[in-house]
Amino acid sequence: MGSLPLEAMMPLNPDSFAGESSAVVDFLADYYRNVDKYPVMANTQPGTIRKLLPEAAPELGDSMDRILDDVQRDILPGLTHWQSPSFFAYFPANASTAGFAGEMLSAGLNVVPFVWTASPVATELEQVVVDWMASLLGLPERFHFKGGGGGVLHGSTCEAVVCTLAAARDRALSKLGHEGILKLVVYASDQTHATFQKGASIVGIPPANFRILRTSANSGYGLTATIVQRAIEEDVARGLVPLYVCATVGTTGLGAIDRVRELGHVARRYGTWLHIDAAYAGSAAICPEFQGHLDGAELADSLSMNPHKWFLTNMDCCCLWVANPTTMTDALSTDPEYLKNVGTTSKMAETVDYKDWQIALSRRFRAIKLWVVLRRYGAAGMRAHIRRHIQMAEWFEHVVAADERFEVVVPRNFSLVCFRLRPRFMADKAVEALNCDLLAAVNASGRAFMTHFVVDDKFVIRLAVGGSMTEMRHVRAAWELLKEKANDLIATGC
Amino acid sequence: MGSLPLEAMMPLNPDSFAGESSAVVDFLADYYRNVDKYPVMANTQPGTIRKLLPEAAPELGDSMDRILDDVQRDILPGLTHWQSPSFFAYFPANASTAGFAGEMLSAGLNVVPFVWTASPVATELEQVVVDWMASLLGLPERFHFKGGGGGVLHGSTCEAVVCTLAAARDRALSKLGHEGILKLVVYASDQTHATFQKGASIVGIPPANFRILRTSANSGYGLTATIVQRAIEEDVARGLVPLYVCATVGTTGLGAIDRVRELGHVARRYGTWLHIDAAYAGSAAICPEFQGHLDGAELADSLSMNPHKWFLTNMDCCCLWVANPTTMTDALSTDPEYLKNVGTTSKMAETVDYKDWQIALSRRFRAIKLWVVLRRYGAAGMRAHIRRHIQMAEWFEHVVAADERFEVVVPRNFSLVCFRLRPRFMADKAVEALNCDLLAAVNASGRAFMTHFVVDDKFVIRLAVGGSMTEMRHVRAAWELLKEKANDLIATGC
């Protein structure tokens, strides 16, 4: 594995491929063995790695062993360790042996299945796995290929949102003419992911036509039909055109749930596109006890969820289903000469060209990754995975509620607990500062990483259970850590 | 590696991770050993794989060994083998041992570096490698971080185009107001990748304001200043606003080269954004003898190229550089509460949050992949890689030109040769049919895969050299195959 003489450069020699790749596998296995020894959130000053590395790329190559030594020395200390069992921040990003195997197969076969011909099995396997997933989540028939709809694997929810917004926009503009773009209005709640506003801005919806509807504790911060209907009616009265409602099942801040069926009826009434963003909580819908949150999905035009969050599928993988694929391909199709299939046109009628279901032309063979995950763990294994985390979150919610110094701010829906330290007789402003300090102290300890949210002026700490290696002992340790830091802060007179 | 009892499901157990991952490595090494034994373009009927697989996901998990057996039996025969040494279609998608190692590290560490805090080293390594790449390509100082610009790794050129179009659009609309979107005009040539028109449509540019400018053989199908200037002046005279010119260095159809410096002067004169799309040929610019094609890049606002094509970097990886990052972050920033960094705000001024440089929030740690490629092969190794393919393409162009039955339709610029069979005394229409049949016969043989293009009503066959395992003997064999099929067709009286 020494540096390469130029004339002998064989970048895909099978023997050196096997040797060097095995070294990386061993490196990663060691990383997983030791991941809980690193500070979960990187304890790094800005600019550290930039100063460490040379200003220019090396002129000559180096051995894989030496490169891995450098990863160990220079890279690992600067990571925030998303695979640490004590990572409770944001939402999880599950790695797994099967997800990694699928990613290796995707990267190793390295096909680019933009049209069917460019790798038929990649397209068809994708159709199969998105139908499998639709069944597992209990989605209505209209989102399955066999029901006239269909799914696609994107890299992110934002891409799914941009594509469906473009579909809804172009459907509307085909009647209004392009100048109608100035009249189009989109609707979301104050809990909807920022990605939606960004997506609307990307597709050219006027910023003034983006409605952020207020939610409250009464509905558990879920969006209800009444408020959407009122907003739509106001806009219609002003001569605007309601385009798209984004409903979320499991919001990022609080895990809140919008009322899908109610919103669906409103959307139908006004002819607006309804998208269901179940990026995080969609995974839970493989368990029958959580499928009720998607009740009414047959009234939606599209639905997305991210296996790369809580479904043991390494980054990246987002499932998007649409009820009427033609609306999307009308907006996103291209048909340049260099992608046409010579001699195969006759059989093409039955095939899908996924380039017309996404933003980019090129794409990765993500289907094999999700397929390996489903094959390796089975539906039963995946349900056990989800339920294990829910149980740990239940336990955590219980101990927080039972400790009189703390409070659960919003009832837990899935595996996310939102809470704060709330000593009696402390002014609101002081409580906010206290929780801010508590979170900073927890994260600075390196023993866990959590993030926060603000709702109704309350600063709340979010603990999202869901790591692939997270066990009950890690959740217990997080709770002990929180109590320890809370004691320190209260003792020093915060 | 048997099926998993539910209670014991440990999806990231380091020991089983190592064992199962090694099995995948061995599987892929065997695949590379045998890849030239498969038909390069899949010889599959539509629906084959869909019929082969069960309708529902399995309830119980299976062993990795059994899954790999199924990949061998069901998946491999349905692939079009992009890593075959006889894959000459589209443009190459280079896999390499280093690119795969980098992909494994990215997938295995599985961090999501949307903000600096979410993995500081991932952000900073990205800044380092895009600066390294900018230097290797000889890009002007203004595209380096140290020069006030900066780069980012996207998944595709289309994403780069959408982000820069949104930046240019919002810069213009900040003066015009949002209703100005109806006046914005974008410019490209009839050789520009379809991705650009799709990108313009995604960001809401009116379809009627998309100018496709005619190129000709006189300029080698490159876009010249004269034609762009005329189009811009017509639009200005009509009260429209010229927004964005897309220049391509190495077009998909023919490998044509737009005149960057000339176009830059026009763009400056009218205040339009100039983007340089060097998706394929940008890799060649690491060799000084090809850097001249980017001459004038200091007049551009942005430039992109894809290491995932011809730079030994497994899918996906697109470098985008911008001269003024603020224009892009103004268009793409979000700042939701759940992504703010508690206790670290003070040091954030110096850091980059890459979520504001791209469409999606989430992102993969692509930087480590490109870094491993550069470390493993070095600049010298990469130049040797590029030059090896160029030499093979030169040889192929030479033998085609020397055979009187064939003709090179457009002079070769890089590693793409565009040619056709042109028997004397044959009518144009018959020549077109003949080449269509020739291409179909070559691809149906399974011994090579090429694609086509149409220029000035000529059907041309494209042979793009660039596979990681492609050697001179494969290019020779492709030429023998073409001659053999041409003889057959001519003998049967085409």
From TrEMBL, chains A, B:
One of its GO terms (molecular function) is pyridoxal phosphate binding. One of its GO terms (biological process) is amino acid metabolic process. Gene3D superfamilies: Aspartate Aminotransferase, domain 1, dopa decarboxylase, N-terminal domain, Type I PLP-dependent aspartate aminotransferase-like (Major domain). The modification N6-(pyridoxal phosphate)lysine is found at residue 309. It holds the Pfam family Pyridoxal_deC. Its cofactor is pyridoxal 5'-phosphate. Keywords: Decarboxylase, Lyase, Pyridoxal phosphate. The keyword Lyase applies. The keyword Ligase does not apply. This is Tyrosine decarboxylase. GO terms for cellular component: cytoplasm.
